[in-house]
Amino acid sequence: MKVRILREPEIRGLISYREAIGAVESAFADFSSGRAVMPGVINLDIDSHQGEVHVKSAYLKGGENYVIKIASGFYRNPSRGLPAGNGVLLLFEAQTGRLRCVLFDNGHLTEMRTGAAGAVAAKYLARREANQVGLVGSGSQARYQVRALLEVRAIRKVRVWSPHPDHAEGYAAEMAAVLPDVRFEPVPSAEHAVRGADIVITATPSRAPLVRAEWVSPGTHITAVGSDGPGKQELDVGVLRLADKIVCDSRAQCARLGEVQHGLAARAITRRRLSAELGEIVLGRKPGRENDIQVTVADLTGLGVQDAAAASLVYEKSLAGGTGEMIDI
């Protein structure tokens, strides 16, 4: 039996941000329409090494493939000269269970589909003229979020905060060189990043709230992507209480793993306050932003259907272009 092997450089060349956004947007719609078979996330914490491992999987009914992904984040790695994120995806033939492709993406597809999800959320929930971003976190996901966001909004300025000031400064310098039309400014506190921002993005592994309600202006959209496991939290529950709309990638998963877990536990919100799933808005079943003064929150915990959509797109493009190495197993 032959299996296609795709490595990170090949994968990067096979999918653009625009394509990733389209694939993820469709995946959200498929999930909320009931087409997805998606078991719960397996979370494995390696506390002694500040590591976490997530296993996610999905199959879209009627599709040709199913996908299983293992992704990790080890937050001491940058000090060792290693990337914090890693991962691999396995793509199987749905009819037979035969392994078709191994995608050694080193976490790239996870990062890209997460950035794409943030862009989809902003497309439907941020004000059309939004151009200033407050960014809490300066790691790899902070890079993907901004790059994807530029596909749906004309961003002019990004204020970035990190608990490590040198990281924020390095991020700003790096991104300014890549995106010279956007002004990147490191700031001394999360409050400085959030106040006055049109779009706030939180992308950290924090287990304590970093963003407070009193900093959030009317009309702000918040994309929270860091809370994807029990105990993680970036938003004070007051932010959820303040929000006019709370949109989940999955209501059930957000209640267990996302910012919503803390709002429910503190009784700051009830399940009735969960306005929609993002896929319901994509499908037109629920409204997105309805006026310019609403505060909206997208709680994005990461769905297996996003991984399946991204991996399937890369696989199909590899077949069309003959990319990758075929090996016998």
Folded structure, characterized:
The chain is of the alpha/beta class and 329 residues long. It folds into two domains: 2-109 and 305-328, ornithine cyclodeaminase, domain 1; 118-302, Rossmann fold (3-Layer(aba) Sandwich), CATH 3.40.50. 34% of the residues lie in helices and 29% in strands. Strands 1, 2, 3, 4, 5, 6, 7 and 18 form an eight-stranded mixed beta sheet that branches. Strands 10-9-8-11-13-17-15-16 form an eight-stranded parallel beta sheet. Strands 12-14 form a two-stranded parallel ribbon. β3 and β4 (51-60) form a beta hairpin.
Structural class by helix and strand composition:
alpha/beta
Strand proportion: 25-35%
CATH third-tier fold name of the largest domain = Rossmann fold
Please give the largest β-sheet.
Answer: 8 strands, mixed
Number of strands: 18
**Radius of gyration, in angstroms, nearest whole number:** 19 Å
Range of helix content: 25-40%
Number of DSSP helical runs: 11
